Amino acid sequence: MWTICNRIYTSNILKRVLLRNLHKQPIKVSWKKPEIGWKKLNFDGSCKCKTGNASIGGVVRDHNAEFLLGYAESIGKTNSTIAEFAALRRGLELVLENGYSNSDIWVEGDYMTLVEIISLKKDVKCVEVQKHVSCINLMLPEFRNCLVTHVYRQGNRVADKFAQIGHRLKQPQIWHVPPGEVVGVMNEDANGKVVFRMR
């Protein structure tokens, strides 16, 4: 008797969840070009759950969605939070090293907590995260203007591809010409392709 009641109860819950989700419209997500004179840095960290191996990656593009540089690197064993902060830190270092310090920079990632910590100057308890945040906060004033925003993963696909490449690398790598495996997604971004995200 209990099993039958339990099945009916579970079935009713599933029906309610399905009905609730049927009424929710998917979110349209796309990568946005920066304004003229701005550079845009998209970054991403990746962590393999089974092994704990992490990597970082990112891409810098201009107002025409032209590729300026990309980077990827394996960073050993850590968690996804540290990987996200390491990805942003390395991206900012490369932007400065490549002479864009006099530019306006738009920094965008898909990890909301990081965006809130940097843009709202929130305190963090983790010592390793604090180190990354301190370095990032020292670099941001080097730019004429800086905007830090969140985008859903579907709008951060090129950075994600670079982070995935990072898992395969033995040495850090920087590109000034995009590798073939990111070109297709870059073209989709440049053309404003919309990717749907379920709520």
TrEMBL record:
**Molecular-function GO term, any one:** nucleic acid binding
Q: Which domain of life is it from?
A: Eukaryota
The record's section on Pfam families has:
RVT_3
CDD domains recorded for this chain?
A: RNase_H_like (cd06222)
Look up the signal peptide feature and give its range. none
- Pinpoint the RNase H type-1 domain residues: 42-164
Which InterPro entries does the UniProt record give? RNase_H-like, RNase_H-like_dom_plant, RNaseH-like_sf, RNaseH_domain, RNaseH_sf
What is the name attached to this protein's record? RNase H type-1 domain-containing protein
According to its UniProt entry, this protein's organism is: Deinandra increscens subsp. villosa
